[in-house]
Amino acid sequence: MSHRESLFVISDLHLGGDTGFQICTARGRRRLAAFIRGIPSQLSTGQHAHLVLAGDIVDFLAEQPFAAFTPEDSVATAKLARIMDHGDTADVWQALRELVSAGHSLTLLLGNHDLELSLPGPRRLLHQRIGHRGVEFLYDNQAFVRGPVLIEHGNRYDDWNVVPHDALRAVRSALTRREAPPPMRTVAGSELVVGVMNGLKRQYAFIDLLKPENEAAIPLLAVLDPGAMFKLQQLVRMARQAARTRTPRDESGAPEERELISGEAEQTEELLLREAQELLGASDDEIGAREHLKSWWELYRAGTFEDRREQLRRLRKALRIYVREQHETFAVAEESPRYLKPAEALARRGFRVVVFGHTHLAKRVPMLGGEARYLNTGTWAELMRIPEEVLSDSAAGDSVLSEFVEALADNQLGPWRTLVPTFARIDLEGETLVSADVFLFEEDGSVRPVGSRI
């Protein structure tokens, strides 16, 4: 009799950060613990569950003191302990312990926000909280493979989030011998989060919730807070720095140099910044003199009715440029070539199901004429999007935009934040694929397949 196994895959939990600074909020953590405890109830008699946490399980970048990477073992362990003990987060780890204690399996993969999980101290703490039996941790640039299924975080195809795994391995090696860890080139995306986004997030909490990220956030910040353009210029310099680390790729899209794994060269951020600067109507010198720039909100509140209408017109123009990008972003059957191309290359090697996370957007895309399927597990953090009325020709767009901007400026984001807790489920009969899809875990504990849009 063949072995029946159900793989449940979730990613991008982003547990971590102080209250008010978290993107996985209390309601997300409660739903997550309920999902883990509910896994056995989704099984048929004789089925075995295998839960895969496919990267960005915790978010070290959200923990103070902020650092793009924390190589000190004791400091990283202390950060992880704070994450595990914050509020009701401890219940998530307890739910994981209960799952493996019941005889099911758990595999953890490394992402790009939780590199420190691979260090000796955090690994020990993980096992202390969860247990050892039935628990596997893949942290050395490995993918999880089970028969025709491949699962990985997906950041290796993202220019901003290239992880130098050889250097990370050298850090771990030194720490096991109580040696000073060697310097490691930090991940450009992590530098961006710590050096730019965390500072902006205190004033504009939407900055790491809004999707599509750069396409929406850059023009929005340009008009909301012109002083932020100085930091956005830093963003583009980081993009250029990331571009210099890109490596040649073979015809399948795989990197020829395995140490630095990245995607195809793009100049999207530079284009966005130039368009944002045109919307702002400010020169580089004016942007440098940040104190001389009034924010969009100051001008809006102090102006006449006509001034406010003009401010809204400018902002709506900035956002409507990206109406097509938002449509594609939330369409479940559409994925960026940055991720779909390498997924297809993997499918051509015989994998019938390829699962990524990283993008925070649930996807279900057929590949190779339907012979294979690409799934993205989405996120258990919260999401925001520009209201559709703003991006359409709707006459109500200006009033909706005004309400939206007031919420953003005052960080009153409750009505605009959405929890879309999604997971992939793959059923196997031995090495034979039975089914594979991406699902939504509802508040009442019910499960349904993700629709055409999230």
From TrEMBL:
InterPro entries, per the entry: Calcineurin-like_PHP, LpxH-like, Metallo-depent_PP-like
One Pfam family it belongs to: Metallophos
Keywords carried by this UniProt record: Cell inner membrane, Cell membrane, Manganese, Membrane, Metal-binding
Ranges in coiled-coil conformation: none
Sequence ranges assigned to domain Calcineurin-like phosphoesterase in this UniProt record: 8-164
Domain of life of the native organism: Bacteria
Family annotation (PANTHER family): BLL8164 PROTEIN, UDP-2,3-DIACYLGLUCOSAMINE HYDROLASE-RELATED
Protein name: Metallophosphoesterase
Protein's organism: Hyalangium rubrum
